[in-house]
From TrEMBL:
It is an enzyme of class 1 (oxidoreductase). GO terms for cellular component: cytosol. Coiled coil: none annotated. It comes from Metabacillus lacus. It holds the Pfam family Bac_luciferase. Its EC number is 1.-.-.-. This is MsnO8 family LLM class oxidoreductase. Residues 1-257 form the Luciferase-like domain. One of its GO terms (molecular function) is oxidoreductase activity, acting on paired donors, with incorporation or reduction of molecular oxygen.
Length: 333
């Protein structure tokens, strides 16, 4: 089974943004050494506790300090941008780091309404225009506009020897069908969705129309997982991220992921206890054997080609160890 990493570049309660971004580099390097297939970093805007607003900047930094792991956006939020500029940026990355660049495409705002308005005067209009945006982006990446198209003489230079590989990221049947109808790989964000993942992925496969000969459906299943040497230890690590998620939803997550001790000091009311319980149901938490069993079951259930793991802990060392324990159990046991 292929495993990959999704990094939201979270800040811990004792970190600066610079330190969090440095830890993102260390995570990518660890992933490469451990045998993970790809490392994607997310795009967020003015969300307290998350450090990365410009994946393309981090990808150039990470690409320069790694050698083989595929790297990409998870996702670039296309309604904010002109497809031509996005194609230029990712073609540039693909030129610098040959055959290593992915471009995950999403349509979420990635931040507050105020941040969305600061970034774009017509975000909602561009969300509705997403099919056209994606088609134009693909044509720029493939450099194949028809001769009569008004962009036919425009090249998203530099043109790399191997183009960036596009993915549609989503959590709904609509995004899945869109990916399938356009012959693109689909990354389903199971970790942030309450929807029926099986039905969504089935809709993707049924709607898949190859863009070129040999194209087949490709599914990445993205899950939240925390692993430690013992399940009890993993539960403690996960509790910090669960408390931080709860605080973030209340607009109080700006101090970053709390330590285990800080998390335990938070007094939960009954509604918050129910929220935490529901969030835990959408996570994989346990020792290496437990996590391995659950990942294998998910892969079989959804017939996923790859599983991408997002892990948030207070300590960067605990985060890397979580990925390490999973890799050792999945790849070497």
């Amino acid at each position: 089974m292929k495993l990959s990493i999704l990094d939201q570049s979270p800040l811990s309660s004792n970190q600066t943004a610079r330190e969090a971004l440095q830890e993102s580099l260390l995570l990518a390097q660890a992933g490469e050494n451990l045998g993970y297939s790809r490392y994607w970093i997310a795009e967020h805007h003015d969300l307290p506790g998350l450090a990365c607003s410009a994946p393309e900047v981090m990808l150039s930094y990470i690409g320069a300090h790694t050698s083989k792991i595929r790297i990409g956006s998870g996702a670039v939020l296309l309604p904010f941008y002109k497809p031509y500029k996005v194609a230029e940026v990712f073609n540039m990355l693909a030129t610098l780091f040959p055959d290593r660049i992915d471009i995950g495409i999403g349509r979420a705002p990635g931040g507050s309404a105020e941040a969305t308005n600061a970034l774009s005067d017509n975000f909602l209009q561009q969300v509705w225009n997403m099919p056209v945006l994606v088609k134009n982006l693909l044509r720029f990446l493939e450099d194949d506009f028809p001769e009569d198209h008004h962009y036919a003489k425009v090249t998203a230079s530099p043109l790399p020897d191997v183009a960036p590989v596009p993915f549609i990221l989503g959590t709904s049947k609509k995004s899945a069908v869109f990916a399938g109808e356009n012959g693109l790989a689909y990354a389903f964000g199971m970790f942030m969705s309450d929807n029926d993942g099986g039905a969504i992925i089935q809709a993707y496969r049924e709607s898949f129309t190859p863009r070129k000969r040999g194209d087949v459906p490709k599914v990445i299943l993205t899950v939240s997982a925390v692993c430690a040497e013992t399940t009890e230890g993993a539960e403690e690590l996960a509790f910090s991220s669960l408390i931080w998620s709860l605080l973030s939803e209340k607009g109080e997550g700006g101090l970053g992921v709390p330590s285990i001790q800080e998390a335990k000091q938070y007094v939960l009311n009954q509604q918050e206890k129910m929220t935490i319980h529901k969030k835990k149901e959408n996570m994989i938490i346990g020792n290496p054997q437990v996590v391995q069993q659950k990942l294998t079951k998910l892969q079989s259930l959804y017939n996923a080609d790859e599983i991408m793991i997002v892990t948030i802990t207070h300590s960067p060392k605990d985060r890397i160890q979580s990925y390490q324990l999973i890799a050792e159990e999945m790849f070497f046991s």
